[in-house]
Amino acid sequence: MPALRELAHNLRRLPGNMKNAFLRHGAPTSDRARSQAVFSNFFLHVQSTRVHRHSLRASTTWALGIIALVLFVILCVTGVLLMVYYKPSATEAYDSVKDIIYVVPVGRVMRNVHRWAAHGMVVVVLLHMARVFYTASYRAPRAFNWVIGMCLLVTTLGLSFTGYLLPWDQLAFWAVTIGSNIAQSPRELTDALGITSSFDPGGFAKHLLLGADTVGQEALVRFYLLHVIVLPALACVLCGVHFWRIRKDGGLNRPAGVDESEPEPETSRPVFSETSDKSYALVGIVKGRSPVVDRGPEHTVPSWPHLLYAEMLVLVLTTIVVLVLGYTLDAPLNVLANPEVPENPAKAPWYFLGLQELVSYSAFSGGLLIPTIVVIGLLLIPFLDREQADTGVWFSGAAGRRVAWRSAVFATVFVIGGLAFSVNYGWLRDWYPHIPQLVITFVNPGTLYVLGIACWSLYVTKRTDSTRLGAIAVFTCFLVAFAILTWFATFYRGPNWGFYWSRASWPVVH
Amino acid sequence: MTESQPPQDLSSSERFHSEVPRRDFLGLAALWSFLVAGFAMLLGMLRLPMPSLFPERGSRFPIGPADRFPPGSVTVIPERKLIVENDKGGVFAMSLICTHLGCITHRQPDGSFLCPCHGSRFDAKGDVIRGPAPSPLHRLAVFQAPNGELLVDSNDLVDDSFRFKPSEEA
Predict the structure, then answer these.
(1) Is there a domain that residue A44 lies in?
(2) Which residues of chain A have pLDDT under 50?
(3) Which residue from A220, A293, B58, B121 has the fewest beta carbons nearer than 10 Å?
């Protein structure tokens, strides 16, 4: 009988015991209980229990990292919803996208939100990179997290590119035809050297990407796989490492001496309502840097509520923005893919148009060589600039701001000058029709931009005797050159990649 | 310093002496066989995405009877992305696929070819005269089937002196 009584007792206590087993911490009624919740809850422990006041300021981060994460989550959710109806088949893909737009309940809005979140993510990830760079937050001990961030940037662009093919419309088909031929472009080099028959990395890469000689069913399945599982899984893992390292590397970056320069805020005491002498207990066992090692907790505030509510606000605002965009602006869908007639002009999505301009000088140098140089260059920044002064300060102070302005002006004049020159006077082949291809591959406006920017940054480094200012020069030039090339290719390139002042002056072509 | 030297009484164990202790050797051997096996497995799996046979139909296809291409004619076959010409020397075929990034070039009224994607221009013989294309338009081999129909092989590249004389009796 006692066992039966105990069973009845356990049944009565079931909801309470279940809740205790599930939550393992008390009701979040005090700072201490909330910190415990953040520490022990799987979904909250991504946050540290306390966060530095400086890290919560909008001017420190502009919340760009969180916005990028929110957009990624929105993309995952809307992406899974779109997968309910999308068919990765060359004959059915286009119709299934049309169904999503015209037949599926809220399908049009979900597709629009997916598109705007995707474009937003590219913008926000780039801005986030610029924020981290200009506040010198890439420096040791955060150097490796900058490398992870670069991997995330490349993954983001890969996700965008693979998603571009899926609607199977004209734009998708020809953009991916061009993209896969860029993968094949090492042939430009191997052909010029006459070794393609024995060593053909270009053909290998293209066949690996397409599973065929041309874009077709095989390519669609491969891009679909990359887009819905391989790259998102990679992005999730990289995001996890990225966030984990933020905490291991000492939380968000802040200027040295910010604690001393600011008066201690009254509101941050008492730190833990009950036992303030235990405020180190949660982090005391953790090796390495954490937000409060070697510092008092006076300038930190509990993550719950301060950080969590700020994040919730960002989540809501970001969602509102993409929803408003999704309801007002429709994602375009071109006519069905036609492998016989390319679009004219066949333009990639805006963030690849700068690359397309470079590709129009030489496929190999614009499509592979220069992007590789840029990515490796950005990747190496934390290892080439190892100064420690003015970390966490925007532009590292007035000198950095000045260098950034001058570099922006230099890059603007240099790139626009190069574009104006090549539009007006052509390039080597127009003057010397029989010039060897190798010369054009390595001497074209694109490679000259890279060379000019490299020389300018070396000059700045020497002149200012600072690797940080040299880094500001090269990064600013990269951003400005990227923006100008993108803007130029978006608005001034028309049919046959010719130069036109406006869309109205495009000729009628067939 | 003599007191720090190891004892020299190792006449029997000298042959066992080695730089790597046995336990470490076994550990390293296990680690390396794990790595090599893992790497070999990875290589084996990576073979999967590269098909041994591509899904496209054969590269050799018919373009029509020989009298479709009389001397002096220039025929564009859009569905094959091909232009077939017959000059005094005979029939030759040229691919319309731009050698830059694979778009389809358009034949202009003056006989040149213009690529819509990045503005490469080829003259009537297929040589690059402007733009980023790294090589001339490809010339493809022309054959004749036993029934008299002409065939083109899109994987069989030939140089620009290639001419095919169709036999008339078929």
Answers:
(1) no
(2) 268-288, 291-294
(3) B58
B142 vs A258 pLDDT, higher one: B142
Among residues A463, A429, A455, the alpha carbon closest in space to that of A444 is found at A429
- The letter for the amino acid at A63 is A
Q: What is the pTM of this model?
A: 0.88
With b for 16 or more beta-carbon neighbours within 10 A and e for fewer, the A281-315 pattern comes to ebbeeeeeebbbeeeebebbbbbbebbbebbeebb
- Measure Cα distances from A375 to A253, A476, A493 in Å: 23, 14, 26
Taking a C-beta distance cutoff of 8 angstroms, is the pair A408, A480 a contact?
yes
CATH of the domain at A215: 1.20.810.10
Considering the domain architecture, whether residues A190 and A237 belong to the same structural domain is answered as: yes
Distance (Å, whole) CA A482 – CA A353: 9
CB contact under 8 A, B132 and A217: no
**Residue B35: both structure tokens together:** 């790595």
pLDDT > 70? residue B169? no
- The answer to whether the Cα torsion of A419, A425, A429, A432 is positive or negative is negative
The CB-based long-range contact list for A71-76 (8 Å cut-off, 24+ gap) reads A71/A117, A71/A118, A71/A120, A71/A121, A71/A124, A71/A318, A71/A322, A72/A121, A72/A235, A72/A239, A74/A113, A74/A114, A74/A117, A74/A318, A74/A319, A74/A322, A75/A114, A75/A117, A75/A118, A75/A121, A75/A159, A76/A232
A159/A349 Cα distance (integer angstroms): 13
Backbone angles phi, psi at A392, to 5 degrees: 85, 0
ipTM of the complex: 0.82
Tokens of A11: 């049944």
Q: Give yes or no: residues A60 and A175 share one domain.
A: yes
Number of domains in chain A: 2
Residue type, A280: Y
CB atoms closer than 10 angstroms to residue B4: 5
Q: Say whether both A93 and A147 belong to one domain.
A: yes
Cβ <8 Å between A496 and B55: no
**Per the CB < 8 Å rule, is A361 touching B132?**
yes
Which residues in chain A touch residue B95, judged by CB atoms under 8 angstroms apart? Answer: none
Chain A interface, best mutation among B54, B76, B117, by max A CB count within 10 A: B117
Q: Are A375 and A304 within one domain?
A: no
Q: Are A249 and A141 in contact (CB under 8 A)?
A: yes
**A36 part of a folded domain:** no
Least Cα distance to A338 among A174, A509, A166 occurs for A174
Let me know whether A334 and A361 are in one domain.
no
